[in-house]
Amino acid sequence: MEMQNELEPRQTAAEIDSVWDSKRExxxxxxxxxxxDAMALTITSIMDMFTxxxxxxxxxxxxxxxxxxxxxxxxxxxxxxxxxLERAVVIAITTNAILVDDAKVVDLRQGSVxxxxxxxxxxxxxxxxxxxxxxxxxxxxKAMKQRNPQAVTSLGMAMVLGDFRINYRLLSEVLYTAGQxxxxxxxxxxxxxxxxxxxxxxx
Amino acid sequence: MGKRxxxxxxxxxxxxxxxxxxxxxxxxxxxxxxxxxxxxxxxxAPRFNQATQQQQQPDRLPLNLTVLxxxxxxxxxxxxxxxxxxxxxxxxxxxAGPSIPKKRVGGKPEYDYEALAAKTREIxxxxxxxxxxxxxxxxxxxxxxxxxxxxxxxxxxxxxLFPNVVLLGGVI
Lengths: 203, 172
What we know:
heterodimer, A: 203 residues, 2 domains, 7 strands, B: 172 residues, alpha/beta, two-stranded antiparallel ribbon
């Protein structure tokens, strides 16, 4: 009996231990749930952030009517002009080629057009391949305007994207040729600079 | 207790694929989007015949403000006369030198855009109704210099100067 009496409190202690263990387990489970809840909350806020960033980027992506990509051969000059971009035929003058709407029309050699591509030789201003290409663009724009006058608002307008290193002679030749193809309004694409006194290498 | 926790877990939407998709989209958009903002400068078609297109009024001479860019500096002329040519006064010829010669910055000659802006402001104050400027250049002058000349003559701190740019076709 004495032995039994001695054992009973020990059993009770074991029982108490098991109860404590189960309670500890429950508490652990509860904590895990709480941890999971906290994780879910973090993901929600990150999702919000991602959505906001995505909307901002999508809006930026779609806002410009002309897609300008600068490169080593086409670096636009900096200007304080604030006039917005407009949809027009794009003439890009890089350091090694002239492109119309992203299609190369004539190669440049040391910053000038080869005389064989000019109607009047070395001293001429009229660049034959450029004229053909611009005239095609003009014909297309005219046909579109005939069918849907509201769709084409910039007939005769060309956007000139020139590398800052090109010389005035080449620019004049391009403008003269464009003028012959009935383009009479030019928009020079530039990188916008906030205030006057933009940095530059011209000098 | 176990059952309740399972129910709670099963109610949550698995956002990981959506997160992955958003991550990819953001990366793609960041690569393709340019954060440089662009603008345009409006320019009228070049005049290759050098003849004035301004309406001749019988009582007054048109301003016909012209800036020629050479590698010496700027030659400004208005009403057919050179403005402020060094040593020659108002009627000095272009051969006498530029109206605004290059300035030396750190031993290196650079175009004096501030002086050009100041000169055009003077001319604008005397001819407030005029807004057209003709710009011409030597054949080797870079496009960047032309853009800076347009910037200097378009507006200054006091307001608009000559925003209607006509490029002269023939090179000097």
